[in-house]
Write a structure and sequence with these properties.
mainly alpha; 168 residues; Arc Repressor Mutant, subunit A; three-stranded antiparallel beta sheet; 8 helices
Length: 168
């Protein structure tokens, strides 16, 4: 039986509805701000824009984890550090994130880092090494490998593609 993802998620508009490989970015916790973040995304469920319609609110560990990620995603990239800070086990955080967002805690954190990297690359002029340091990567090489693994493009190629496309 196929599991339906939470209805407050966004799915790339060019991916099939049941595609397991589709990148998922949640619209309530990670608001898109630009063409780099939102152009190719469409809402997967009609109730995503209203928190009043949520049948089951996200678990409290997820809400605390989400807030901690927003405060410290550039400080640490380890789920163990967030678990220790919040007083939960990594398993509890992963289960809560899986329930609320449909992905693991590490995937949630990686998506947040990727989104911030895309924003900085699309709207800024800083070199990749500066962005890497700002996001807490030990070197520009680590950042480049992380970015390419999650987007399929190098940071420079992404920036060039965003500058080439006109803003909508």
């Amino acid at each position: 039986m196929l599991r339906r993802p939470p209805y407050w998620q966004l799915r790339p508009s060019n991916s099939p509805r049941n595609s397991p490989s589709g990148t998922v970015i949640r619209c309530r916790c990670i608001p898109p701000c630009c063409t780099a973040c939102s152009t190719s995304y469409s809402c997967a469920w009609p109730t995503c824009s209203s928190t009043a319609r949520l049948r089951h609110p996200p678990p409290e560990p997820f809400l605390r984890f989400r807030d901690a990620v927003e405060r410290g995603f550039s400080r640490t990239h380890r789920i163990d550090d967030y678990a220790r800070e919040l007083g939960y086990s990594t398993r509890t955080l992963t289960r809560a994130t899986q329930t609320a967002a449909g992905l693991s805690a590490k995937d949630y954190l990686d998506q947040r880092l990727t989104l911030e990297a895309k924003r900085l690359l699309a709207h800024g002029t800083e070199p990749a090494s500066t962005i890497a340091a700002h996001l807490g990567f030990p070197s520009a090489t680590h950042f480049g490998k992380f970015f390419q693994r999650h987007t399929g493009q190098t940071p420079l190629a992404f920036r060039v593609s965003q500058r080439a496309s006109p803003p909508t």
